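Input (diguanylate cyclase):
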Amino acid sequence: MDILTGLVVWAAQATTLSLLLFVWWMRDRSQMFKLSWSVAFALLAGGLLLVGLRGQIATFLSVEIANTMLLASIGLLIGGMQQFDGKRIDPYIAIPALIWVGGMLLPFIREDFSARVILYNVAASIGFAMFIAIVLHIRSGRTWARRLLAGVLGIHIASSLTNAAMAALSVATSFSTMPSPAFVLLPGAFCFVAAVLTGAQMMTEQSEERLKALASTDPLTGILNRRGLINEFQARCTSVVPDKPLVALLHFDIDNFKQINDRYGHQAGDGVLVAFSRLASISLSPRGAFGRMGGEEFASVLRVADMVEAASIAEGLRMTLALQTLSAGEHRFGVTVSVGIALKPAAEADLDHLLSAADRALYAAKAAGRNCTAVEQGNAATIIPSAAMLTRHEMALEIHASEQVATLRRLSAVATS
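Output:
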């Protein structure tokens, strides 16, 4: 197979990939990396065809424009990789194409075949080196597919630099007069196929991760669902935290949620669930896992030093929510939450037992008038004293007090009783 035929076949493959990625992107426009890769493969196909038509079309098209398109495709592949990893495209992806354009402004490079070959391959090598850096940038996400892709790109760099060296040592005036014309095409074609296969594997891995996330995530609020919280519970129990020997389960139930739905509508009810989830995630996620158990019920699994710490965290969140004003259309209203807490040493913690104990404590908090916190202690629930009696102003002062000193003072009486 001659170089022209190989370029045409390569261009056809790139065109097919471009169309497939574009159709895939049209079905899910949230994944912009597919569009970037689609455009990249379209540029690759166009550049290869222009190179293959060298001698039949204007030199400006088959040299300057063609190689600019090929190097721009490398830049867009890099940009797509950044989007694949959830980042924005950086301007430096244009470096390979800009090196070529800048070099072609110099007559002694533009008019010399060997100089052009050297310039192109050096620019391509820089682009592939940038690609490797992006692929391996995520330390925790270095799957075997990423490592393999980095290896394939490394081979591409080696072949590009070899081509540059061959051009420097020879007096070739065209691809056909180079020492090994097939070497110009074969490594690139091999790396193209290998990169596509590893890229497909990476997308498969990403899809699997997304499915796992969907299986453990609540679609409305974006936080963990019951299944995800169960998985996190096991992780919290088995982790070694010497200064926090207890596992605490905090069970939250939004007060009078049915009345909110009936009075303001289900859209307002959903807004309450989302608002509470955001507030609780900010407060609890750094300390432990937080998720939605179902309906208006939520739970958090924490490692704590003692009951005072667990109750302090719950009281801080409860009082903060009580100070919020939510809106539904023209209506403004407040929302409160009741909390039940159960604790066990990490080595003895059983999720079903903790849930039952936290449910009993939550029931006691509801029976005590709602908008309060109860702790299960030896099959009996204890209400955190006086918190429900605070005025709005007093709650605000407690929330902003250093280390919640006032809250801890109230809790210490329960801890020692």
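The longest strand covers residues 246-254.
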